[in-house]
Amino acid sequence: MYLLAIDPIWWLIIEKLVLIAFVITVSMVVAMYATYGERKVAAFMQDRIGPNRAGIFGIFQPFADAGKLFFKEEIIPVSSSRFLFILGPALAMITALLTSAVIPWSVPLDINGRSVPLQIADVDVGILFVFGVVSIGVYGIMIGGWASNNKFSLIAAVRGASQMVSYELPMGLALLGVLLFAGDLRMSSIVQTQVEHGWNVIYQPLGFIIFFICALAECNRTPFDLPEAENELNFGYHQEYSSMKLGFYLFAEYINMFISGAVMAVLFFGGYDIPFVNEAAWGLGQNTMAIIGFAVMMSKALFFVFVFMWIRWTIPRFRYDQLMTLGWKKLVPLALVNLIISAAVVLWLKK
Amino acid sequence: MIHLLQANISTSAPSSYLPIGLQIAFAAGLVALLMVLTHLLGPRRKTSDKLQNFTSGIESHGDARQPMAIKYFLTAILFVLFDVEVIFFYPYAVNFKELGWAGFGAVLMFVGFFLCGFIYIIKKGALKWED
Question: Quick one: CA torsion of A214, A216, A220, A222, rounded to 10 degrees?
Fold first, then answer.
C-alpha cells in the first residue's frame, strides 16, 4: 500500500530508467560481440579460424579488447584543440546511444495489471527523431577530425561529413514510401500497420534497397567506408585517438550498425511481428508474447548486422566520385520515382 | 491512478519527451564516467615525440587547418537546400490518404520544382567530382 502512495510520475520514471538501462546495456553488449562476430565472419569468409584463444571459441575476446582500451595511455597531441578533441568521441558515442529511444522492441509487458510498453519514448515525431540524432552524429566525426589538427584526419572528417549528409537525402526520400502506408511517423503505429497489412518490404522493395544502401553509407561501412580508407588516409578521422576515446568511435560505429538494423526491421520487416503465423491465436500470456516478440525483433536486427559484415568482406570500396554520383545522381531520382509510383498505385487501387 | 498514468504517456503531450531527456542524461553520464575512468586508469608516460601528430613517420609540416576543396562545402550547402525540400514531403506522406488525387497533383508539381533545381545544379557541374 505504501508503494501505491507514490506519485504515478515516479513509477513512470523508474520504469523508463530500468528500460533505458536495459536497452543501453543490450546495445553495448551487441556492439561488443559484433566486433567478435565481425572477426569470425571475416575468418569464415577467408577460410581462417579467427579469434580462438580467449575462452572457448574465443568468446571472451571482446572483454580482452575492451579491457585493453581501458588500460591504454590516452594521448592528446600538443597541436590539437583539447576540449574539442574530447568532445568529438563523446558526442559520437552519446548520439549512438540515443537513437534506440524510439524503437519499439516488443509488445507491452504486463506487470501486476500495469501495461509497460517496451519502447522508451513513443513520441509523435518518431522516425524523424532518429534522423535528427543521426545528423548530430556527423558532428562527432567532424569535430574529432578537426580537433586532431592532422591533415589525414581532417580530410577524412570532411569526406565523412559530406558523405553522410549526401546519403541522408535519399534515405529520407526512401522512407516516404513507408509513411504513405502507415500515415503516421510514430514507430509503434508503423509496426502496427505492418502487423495488420503485411510487411512494408513487400510493398516497398525499391524503397528498402535504397534505404539499406543509405544505411551502409550512414554507418560508414564498406563499400562506403571512405572516412577510414586506411590505404589513403592511414586510419581516418580517429587516427590521433587512443584509449577509450578511440574505443568510443569504434563502439559508436557498431552500435549504429545494430540500431540501423533495428530501424530497418521496424520500418520494412514488421518489427516484432512473426511472419506467416497469427500469434494472437496461440493464447499465450502477454509477458510470454513480449519475450518472444523481443527475440524476433533482435534476430531481425542481428541478421542485418550479419548482412553488413557479409557485404564488408565481399565488396571493395567505392571511389569518392563514384560514391557521390551514386548518392546524388542515382539514388535521389530513384527514390523520387519510387515515391510517385507508390503514391499513384495506392491511389489507383483505392479509387 | 491508471488513468493518470495513461494520460502521462500519451504520445502528443510534451511529457512524452521525458524519457528521451532521461536517456540523454543516462548516455551523457555513462560517457563522462567512462571517460574519467580511463583517464585515471591509463598510464601516463608522455614524451615530446609521442605528443606530435602522426603522419606515417614523416615530420608534419604546418597547420592542418588549411583551405579544403570547395566541393565539400558545396555539397553541404546543397544538402541543406534539398533536405528542406525533402522535409516538405513528410506532411504530404502522413496525410496522403485524406489528400487524394488533388494532393497527388500538388506533389507532382512540387517534385517538378524539386527536379528543376536538381537539374540546374547538375548542369552547373556542382556535383561533378572528376576534374
Answer: -130
Residues B31 and B80 occupy one common structural domain: no
B72 and B28, same domain (yes or no): no
**pLDDT value of position A303:** 94
| The C-alpha cell that represents A32 in the structure block | 561488443
A331 alpha carbon, distance to own chain's centre: 20
Domains of chain B: total: 2
pTM for this predicted structure: 0.90
**B126 and B71 inside one domain:** yes
Task: Tell me the ipTM for this assembly.
Answer: 0.86
Mutation target among A7, A138, A347, A348 for the B interface, most CBs of B within 10 A? A347
Chain B within 8 Å of A52 (Cβ-Cβ)?
A: no
Class of residue A124 by CB neighbours under 10 A (exposed 0-12, middle 13-18, buried 19+): middle
Mind listing the pLDDT tens digit for each residue in B22-31? 999 999 999 9
Cβ-based burial of A307 (10 A; exposed 0-12, middle 13-18, buried ≥19): middle
- Unique residue bearing C-alpha cell 489507383: A348
Range of the domain at B18: 1-45
Residue of A159, A156, A173, A225 lying closest to A332 (CA atoms): A173
**A87 inside 8 A of chain B by CB:** no
